[in-house]
Design brief:
The protein is mainly alpha-helical and 155 residues long. The chain has helices at residues 12-15, 19-22, 25-37, 43-50, 55-67, 104-121, 128-150; strands at residues 71-73, 79-81, 93-96, 99-102.
Amino acid sequence: MTKDIETPPPDDSSKKLPIEDQLKGKTLQVYMYMIKKKEPVGVREVQRDLGFSSPSVANYHIDKLVEMTLISQDEYGRYYVVQKVQVGVLQAFVNIGGLTVPRLSFFAAFFTTVLIAYVVLNLENLDIYAIGFALAGTVAFWFETIRVWIKRPVT
């Protein structure tokens, strides 16, 4: 004789995917657009600026963001960002005055500046090892910066 073991019904929290799995593609594009805008936007504005085929496509992705509690709606029906998250490719970027730049670009600029300053200040007594290390750091960070830039979410 076998007993049937009842399994409890799954609760709603187990059905929800993590934000990392939901925030991708056009939904990520809408989210990045809204972060850059820094002001409430309407569905038609999102549709127009991102080149979606219809307002319903924009509305679908906005609804997904509202469901994830990343954006909210104001009393005029416009949407605004209430929570900034750093997931996936967004972790490699920083927003400065509406401009999204790779974090590694600061290290690349630093190594480039150090290399140039070393060469200019020690023109008569250059150490090949110092130049080699500075050049290696410069090339490596610029390479990674460009690689991350190519993978950025386009808005």
